[in-house]
């Protein structure tokens, strides 16, 4: 993967940060995208550069196509065309469906679905022109099984499955792959803030008996971004400790 240019949306924290830093360790040129946390994004850039990689932080709200197009211009000016796009940016707005407003619904679908659409369409020509272009979308176990109080999030994450498989068919003729990673419960700040009794229940319901790590998700993404995955496309890779078993 050395010298590949990789864009990771929403990578100032959590799983996105882990993916960006993993790419940096591979010697990639990494674009750390963020919406509203410049200090955290620059900290990721510093971590990548300290490990010998190259990185820049670029602000862009993925729900705004103009900002995404400006991000592409900044990336091209610094690194050139993009080889790998990881659509990771996401939010949750949890509330029971009976009490869910249109705003609660729209804001989650806007980030996950519109954001994925905007970024993929904006960088589409880059991925097609790349020697081995890679589109990787981050979904969730919730997209498969649903989750109490997350009708908006589950719908958005399920939509990413269909989007990925369709893009895999359309990109295949160009030699570009599209795959999806669906993490289970990962030890991020959001999960760690859950009450301990809920985390205990998650561990009990997971065959491997623990939360996953950001590094474990990033390792799968790095594999899918590499030339070792050249005959894999249209797949949803679960990283969930056997939660579906």
From TrEMBL:
It comes from the Archaea. InterPro entries: 3oxo_ACP_reduc (IPR011284), KR_dom (IPR057326), NAD(P)-bd_dom_sf (IPR036291), Sc_DH/Rdtase_CS (IPR020904), SDR (IPR050259), SDR_fam (IPR002347). It comes from Haloferax larsenii. SMART domains: PKS_KR. This is 3-oxoacyl-[acyl-carrier-protein] reductase. It is an enzyme of class 1 (oxidoreductase). Residues 4-189 form the Ketoreductase domain. Its EC number is 1.1.1.100. Keywords: Oxidoreductase. CDD domains: BKR_SDR_c (cd05333). PROSITE patterns: ADH_SHORT (PS00061). Belongs to the short-chain dehydrogenases/reductases (SDR) family. PANTHER family: 3-OXOACYL-(ACYL-CARRIER-PROTEIN) REDUCTASE, 3-OXOACYL-[ACYL-CARRIER-PROTEIN] REDUCTASE FABG. GO terms for molecular function: 3-oxoacyl-[acyl-carrier-protein] reductase (NADPH) activity.
